[in-house]
Write a structure and sequence with these properties.
The chain contains 12 helices and 12 strands. By secondary structure, it is of the alpha/beta class.
Length: 293
């Protein structure tokens, strides 16, 4: 049974004529007859009977007509939902690390809202491990991570870009004038760190572990704005992505140190679970990121 057969059946029932139905629907009369014969065979009932030159519904045909009309109405409603190309609706749940949420995501969401104003956006923050767990549990549709590694194969990469990360101090900090700094230099001054589990904190922890140099942790917080403010006031050294300190670097409120160690490799990844259905709302968000990030 298909939609074409139902349309043909209901049209014959309305016109009481195979010939007029063929003319209205643009089929050969033999095609109309074949469709009805196939439908009757599948249902196991007789839908029409001919008396003279007239066509009448059988009692079974009359009963089936009510169901056929309901099925066609449902089909029209389904087409209506699927065909509203100009009105993308949500909700859309986005998981994002805090630094991206604070400094880069607002611009992307503004662009997204311009093209998809009917989508309701839900933001959830967390570190990479937490966000990947949310994707597995289908608690979010997409995750925006800061990572040094490629996510596991259960996730599909939608976007990726390399990010610049810098060691930062106030202009009057003792290390600001040095040509280069090493892990021993960092051990002499207070550190302003993000919480454990954050990617930037893991970089500091790796430096400390590799060099076995003690460190002075003055601040441990997930609030990047607080870290920036304290760094500008000379409280210590911090490590942040450049996209989070563009204005502070341009105004010379923060100075980038010349790190002599291994380069800080970090990437922004936008990922979905490989089994996730890419809804119109999610597809539009991915497109916005790819074109504007």
């Amino acid at each position: 049974m298909d939609i074409r057969q139902l349309v043909t059946f209901t049209t014959i029932a309305r016109l009481n004529s195979f010939t007029q139905t063929a003319s209205e629907l643009g089929y050969a009369q033999s095609s109309i007859t074949a469709q009805i014969q196939l439908l009757e065979k599948e249902l196991g009932i007789r839908l029409f009977e001919r008396i003279g030159k007239k066509v009448f519904l059988t009692s079974e045909g009359s009963e089936f007509l009510a169901y056929a009309k309901q099925m066609l109405n449902l089909w029209e409603n389904a087409k209506g939902v699927a065909s509203v190309a100009d009105t993308i609706t949500g909700p859309l749940s986005i998981g994002v690390v805090e630094s991206v949420c604070t400094f880069r995501l607002p611009y992307l969401l503004k662009k997204y809202n311009e093209c998809c104003p009917e989508v309701g956006i839900v933001l959830k923050t967390g570190n990479s491990k937490v966000l990947q767990s949310m994707l597995r549990e289908n608690q979010i549709d997409v995750a925006v991570l800061l990572e040094s590694e490629i996510p596991p194969p259960e996730f599909e990469m939608k976007y990726s870009r390399k990010e610049s990360v810098s060691l930062l101090v106030a202009p009057d900090h003792p290390l600001a004038s040095k040509e280069s700094v090493c892990s021993e230099d960092l051990s002499k001054y207070p550190l302003l760190l993000t919480r454990r589990g954050c990617f930037f904190r893991s970089i500091f922890d790796r430096i400390i572990e590799e060099t076995n140099v003690p460190s002075k942790i003055t601040l441990d917080t997930s609030n990047i704005q607080a870290i920036k403010q304290l760094a500008m006031l000379g409280f210590g050294i911090t490590l942040l992505p450049k996209f989070a300190v563009v204005d502070e670097l341009e105004s010379k409120q923060l100075i980038e140190l010349h790190w002599s160690g291994t380069e800080f490799d970090i990437m922004t990844h936008v990922i979905c679970h490989k089994d996730k259905w890419i809804s119109p709302a999610l597809k539009a968000f991915i497109t916005i990121v790819q074109e504007n990030a």
